[in-house]
Each structure stands twice: as C-alpha cells, then as structure tokens.
# Entry
Amino acid sequence: MAHEFETIGILAKKDGDSVRTTLHALVDDLLGRGKTVLVDDSHEDIADGIDRCPRISLGQRCDLVVVVGGDGTLLDAGRLVAATGTPLLGVNLGRLGFMVDVLPRDMRATLDDVFAGRYIAESRLMLSARIERASGQFEKDAFDAINECVIRNQAFARVLDFDTYMNGVFISHHRADGMVVATPTGSTAYALSGGGPVLHPGLNALALVPICPHTLSDRPLIVDADHRIEVHVANNLDGSALFTSDGQVTQALSGGDRVHIERAPHNLQLIHPPGYDYFNILRNKLQWGRGQQLA
# Structure
C-alpha cells in the first residue's frame, strides 16, 4: 500500500507561527520523499515551485489530504473533500482535537508509517440537509455536515417552537432553544454539551438533542441514520431562526420553513496512525476516570 499516496494535498489554518512552522516542515518532508505536493491557494508564503490548488479541487487532484490545524479546520476540509473519497490525515494544532490526532512532533514518524501502509482507515457517516421554505420551494444547495445540523432561534434569549418528524411520522412538538441533529462524530461536540450521549463512530445512528428544552421530559433521542429527519419551524415564529452546519455554515429560517436532514450519500474518510485508540482519546479529552485512582 506504500504506493497508494503519491499526490498529497495540504489544507491548513491561515494564522499563527506554529501553523507556518509545521506547514513548511511538512512540505519539506513530503518533497524529500519525492511526493507531488499541492497546497490550497490561500497560502502564499510557501516556497517557490510548490503548486497551488483551489481548495475545492484538492480532493479531486490528490490521493491524500493532510489537514494542519484543529478539528474546525478538519470539518471545513472534510466537507470540501468527502464527496471525492479522498482520505484526510489531521495534524493537531488545536486545543481539543477528537479527529486531528497527530502531534507535530510525531508527524515525520506518522508519515513513515502511512506511506509504508501502516495506518488505520476509518469511515465516518455525514449528514446532508435541504431547506424547504414555507412556500414549498427548496433551496438549491444541500448542506453537508460532519458533526451536526442545528436549528435554533436567532434571538438567543427566546425559545423556539418547532416540530420533529422521522420519515414523515410526527415525533413531537418542542419548545426549546433549538435542536441538534448529530452524527456519532458530532456526539462529542455541541450535542454532548446539550446533554446528549456519546455515540461510537462505528454506529449507524443519529442523536436528536433538544437545546435547553422548556419541558424537562424532552430528552435526547437516538435513531437509525438511514431515517430521514424533518424539523418544522412554527408558523408563528417571532423573528427568525438559524440553521447551521458544523457551526460554520449558516442559513436564516423563517416561520413555516422546514429542514430535511438525512444521511449524506458519501462518508468522510479518515487516516489514523498505528495505535489509534478512540477510547483513549475520550479518556484524555473528556478526562474520564480522573481523580479516581487510589493514592
């Protein structure tokens, strides 16, 4: 499998000395291995002779995309690249990384393993959302999400009235700050802070997590990811609501609008170094078991 990755794309955060240092070291390492390197065209301070590539085209032109940054950078890269099936490898410069799990000091050794075929490949399900306006007209574009789709009131001090449906069957009416529809990947993000459960990334499931519900019995619900979820904003909405994808893409919603959410036709492909352990990441990031050891 060592011959599998010959053209390597790099997508990185744009700010910070640590990003530039890691980015230059990564480019030098890859060129030293004889790889073809493409850097997203937002970076202008890379050495001459390195090809730039529009971000949207990296997945089509590369065998592997290395993401330098935090989970937010990987979410952005993943939505751009996932449909092409090109895998992503994350180098962690963020503060709390669940998906970018390679430290800069381990980057060279990890690349040794990856190019020798020693890695763990993982496929993560994604969501695709369409917005249907109250008129019955659908927005032209669908919105992909790796972590979650969120519907909430734009005025943070006000509750939102909305209904949820699964495959056209009514689930419930809700009065809450909003609703998070999360993938297993996103179960450790916004959904977790809203009281939702941690879902193992291998599950074919979604979590529907109300945000600060007005009724305490309005609890998180787990459903099969192959079901279609609809969130109907109440017609009597006072003001406007918001739809967000991964907290990075936003669309305004009005009374009577509907959001249709289903599993995306493609998955996110990730590459992890040997020894990757999902539960070890949970223990470290969520501090499971801390303070329970005997003195």
Remarks:
- Residues 127-263 form a domain with the Tumour Suppressor Smad4 fold (CATH 2.60.200.30).
- The longest strand covers residues 169-176.
